[in-house]
Amino acid sequence: MVQRSKRLLSYPAFIVLVAYTARMAVFFYMSYMWHGTPNPVRTFLPYGYELGLVARSIAAGHGFSSPLRFGETGPTAWFTPIYPYLVAGVFKLWGIFSDESRFILETLNCAFGALTVIPIYGIASRVFGKNVAAGAAWAWVFLPASFFFAISWIWDTALAALFLALIFWATLAMREAKSIWPWAGYGALWVTGVLINPSLLSLFPFLAGWALWQSHYSSSSRIKFSAAMLLVFAIGLAPWTIRNYRVFGKFIPLRSNFGLELWLGNNPNVPDTWSPWLHPNDDPAEWAKYKRMGEIAFMAAKEHDAFQFMWAHPGDTLNFMSRRFMETWLAATESPADIWGRSSLNIKAIFLMNILLSLFAWLGAMFVNRNRHPEAAPFAMVLLIFPLVFYLTHSTLRYRFPMEPIMIILAAYAVAHLVSLLRGRPARVQQSVTPAGSLPAI
Length: 442
Known about the structure:
Structural class: mainly alpha
């Protein structure tokens, strides 16, 4: 009986079921609490601000346009297309900003969060063994952030985390791929992830390059593999890039709003990390400027102003970046002692969990690198490279969330390694316990 229970608790499908049930239970509770909220908040806040407005425009027949709440502004490339069109499809079937649409979208986000258990288990099982895999999967089930961003935001956050975990899992498996077809599929997985959340693109040259370098085949085979991957990636990206060029007359492969995001974090009015009240979704004057200039000219002007400020104020720029670094890893921009001394119990708990997750993730990366495991490099790449753009622009835990599946795996390994050291039996990572490209039993 004990052995049967242990096997059940280590079974990925069962963990997925628990994760989904737990998220839906919290969602129903939050929906009950939300029911009395005034309508303007109910129809705006849950839908991710600009994303919900673009989805509304699509569903209403006005196309991919008007991301700001003060009025229509015409076509936009503020987002990549996959998630806005998903939301728009739900709006079309169940009503724009309706309770039914919110239920469907939150249910999907809960499913994305629960399904992330599968790549977490697959990655950890391959590299660290099944005990760490089960521990990491269960840690993900109860990670507060994995509830919060699936339930409180109708945004691509939960889906992006799922896809980054799937891409990472595929990257490890590509070392043994024997033909161009898995590499073509790998390219398709990458372009889908990038069209969900463009921040994933920062990892593409590093993870894909590592997979090619580590492949056990000749240089000519690597050239064919990379050609297949890049061809599929380019074909997948082409329709959106062509649309943007036709609409704006400019090469915009993904999205247009980098200049604004950079300026919001680097201008004379930034107090610590960024200036959200100057966003054209919140400042009527900035919205009017956006509407008058047009999206592309507005973004170019903001990028120019941001870089001009950064060159003129290098000390402030470095200070802002250091605070964003702290916010990314500690969920705070102030001294931890100051935050702890004046925060409520809930804030202290969230703060402590973020510190522990970050600490153990970095410890796990250090341990796996010290063991010289051949698959250590991709873990370090995610931690080091993915957040870089947010240090430069502005940061929140929502931006960090897509890499938290990788962090939870490293944290689970760090705990297992420390426990083994205390017992006098150092934990050892293993050499690919899961065959290349295969899934764990579900």
